[in-house]
């Protein structure tokens, strides 16, 4: 039981920090949307992607913090980070992309593990099953 509790706490902490990182980055993109759009265009990307990416980061981060739709949010954020590495960070050395890599793998972890016991996803699963016991979702 202790191992399951520690695993759930670990998942919660990674989920929260990953969510915070994405919320901050999404909010920054919205605050400077004109500059973000220009940056996307300088990379050869259509400008309309700037608010789409900002939305994915902001909403995805909120969903991770709540532990709601965690696997879906993790998948969307994983795709987002792959896009970052293939465009804005393409060709840069390891030291320039290490933060992006850890955020990518933190998002990917959510896809594989789900939110864990301390999440809205788990509460929904418990309610559906009629069980009060803690589950990993």
From TrEMBL:
Predominant location category: membrane
Pfam families cross-referenced by the UniProt entry: DoxX
Subcellular location: Cell membrane
Stored InterPro entries: DoxX, DoxX-like_oxidoreductase
UniProt keywords, alphabetically: Cell membrane, Membrane, Transmembrane, Transmembrane helix
Topological relation to the membrane, as annotated: Multi-pass membrane protein
Alphabetical list of PANTHER family matching this protein: INNER MEMBRANE PROTEIN YPHA-RELATED (PTHR33452:SF1), OXIDOREDUCTASE CATD-RELATED (PTHR33452)
Protein name as it appears in the record: DoxX family protein
Taxonomic source organism: Paenibacillus enshidis
